Amino acid sequence: DVDGGENLSMVGSRDGKRDILKGGNRKRRSNLRPADILNHLHWCNSL
């Protein structure tokens, strides 16, 4: 399922980031690997 990857790729805007951090992990937990979440958080911190 590529939904998790698509969600992560949409986090270019502030609204997208907020959606992932608040609801994305809960909705897509089965599709997101721990490494994906860590890489995503690292990418957000580097902005």
In words, what does this structure look like?
The N and C termini lie far apart (27 Å). This protein has helices spanning 3-9, 14-27, 34-45. The longest helix has 14 residues, at 14-27. The relative contact order is 0.18. With 47 residues, the chain is an all-alpha fold. It is 70% helix and 0% strand.
* SS-derived structural category: mainly alpha
Strand content: under 5%
Roughly how many Å is the radius of gyration? 10 Å
The number of helical segments is 3
Global outline: flat
The tally of structural domains comes to 1
State the helicity in percent bands. Answer: over 70%
Order of helices and strands: HHH
Total number of β-strand segments? 0
Mean pLDDT across all residues, rounded? 62
Largest sheet, strands/sense/barrel: none
* End-to-end C-alpha gap: 27 Å
Q: Which regions have little confidence, pLDDT < 50, spanning 5+ residues? A: none
Helices, strands, pairings?
Layout: H1 3-9, H2 14-27, H3 34-45
Short structural summary:
The chain is built from three helices and no strands. The protein is mainly alpha-helical and 47 residues long.
List keywords for this structure.
47 residues; flat
